[in-house]
Every structure is written in C-alpha cells, then in structure tokens.
Amino acid sequence: MIVRGLLGSFMLICLIAKITTASEYKRLDFEFSHELLSPKKIYGTWNSTNLNFFHRPIETFTYFLGVSGFSRKEGQALQLTGGVYKDWKDWLYTYSALSCGTNSSYLFRYRLDHEFFFKLGKKKNIAPSIGVSHIKYFSPHKDLITLGGLTYYGDGFNITYKHFINISEPGSIVSQSHMFSLEIGKDKKAFTYLNISFGKQAYLATYLASPEEIRQNSHYIVLKHRHWIGKFWGSIFGLNYLNLKEGYDKYGFSVGIFREF
Questions:
Q1: pLDDT, tens digit, 9 for 90 and up, residues 92-116
Q2: Cα separation of 7 and 10, whole Å?
Q3: What pTM was estimated for this model as a whole?
Q4: What kind of architecture, by CATH, is found in domain 2-260?
Q5: Which residues pair with 53 in a beta bridge?
C-alpha cells in the first residue's frame, strides 16, 4: 500500500512538473533517510522516503507538494504535505502548510502551520516572525504551538532563532523549546544548513492507568548539504542526532538527489 501510494504520488508530481511550463522556477527533490535508535531492541530502526516538488510560477508566490513514506517497528505509514510561500507587500510575506498522515501510532492525523514574516531595515534583510501550529493526533492528544522568531539575511548566509511555546491537550501541559539555524551558500553552487533545537517535550500520558504528566528534555542537531553537480542536477546529504532524556538516542543520515526545471 505504501509503495503504491508513493508511486502514484511520484507520477502525479512529475505530471505537474511537466504541465507547469509557464513557471519561473521548479525543483523536484527525492531523499531517503535511515535512523538508528538506541536502545535498538525497543525502538529498532526508522526508514523514510521523501518526494517534494517546489514551483514558483511568479516571483511573489511559491507552492510545494510532498509525499513521505515511513517504515518503523510499529508499521508503515504515509504522509502528504502541501504549502505556500506568499509575498504580500515589500514588508510582509507568509508561510502556510497542511500535512495529513495515515492512521499510525507515530504520525499525526493532520497538522496546520502558519507564520507571518515582517521585512525590516533598508535592505529588508531583517525578518521578525510570529506563527502558530495546530497538531491533531490519532490518539486523544493535540498540540497548539505559538512561536516568535528573528531571521537575518546576510551576504551568502542567514541566521534564524525561534522560540516555541507548546500547549498539549488533554491537561493543558505547557512546554517551551528553542531553535537556532544557520544557512551558508550560493545558488547553483552549494548550500549547507545547520539546525540546533533544544527544550522540553511535555504531555499527559493518558495511556497509563492513572494519567500523569511527562516531561523530557531533548536536543536535536541536523546538518544538511545541497550541492549542484550540473546546471540542473545535484545531490543532498544529511546527518542528524536526537537525544531524548530518559527516552532514546537517535542517529541518522539521509541521501538524495534534486532536479531543477
């Protein structure tokens, strides 16, 4: 079922890439990731395959479509994603996305994200942001996340900081986390991305006979490199590490290719 879903989505996305001939920019990404968890006997390994299509028909509007297939000890699952980047004014742009997952113990039923970016400064290269996310799981849980951030766009690099406040239901359990991001590179050459996230994961464990609040510190590091091999082709390579205190350690890598049209 998962393979058929991925193949069907791949054919649909490729068809869209062919028929949108008036586009200014199009890109297709294909990526595979493998993650090893410790203790392995409990969590096993996680594998995923991701296909994403980006299309910018005009300078102020970009949309993307994505499909991801997951294989874990708990079973297989599929996730669909779509989103939009939109420039409204010379001082404002937004990001919106919707993701939906198939019924599984580790994916959400749906996720909604929206973020406002305000462009400040003479060069419009300083962008404070505010945003909100709503996540509904197949269990009784749901999350409401608010964020505030700041991005600085320099010459050949950009730096971002974001602060997240998460309210988990049931129980109205509040937790906070932080994310720092650095991107360095040049278009048609190479880009390198480094993301560092840390904070708490908190929720009410309703699966226990007497539900109780769970709080776990986490640290997550992602390093990813995108490199152009030719004028329209390139490779993707990534490494990641997650430590969930009193939970597990996760070590992962990803490889992929991309094609521009």
A1: 999 999 999 999 989 999 999 999 9
A2: 5
A3: 0.88
A4: Beta Barrel (2.40)
A5: 28, 65
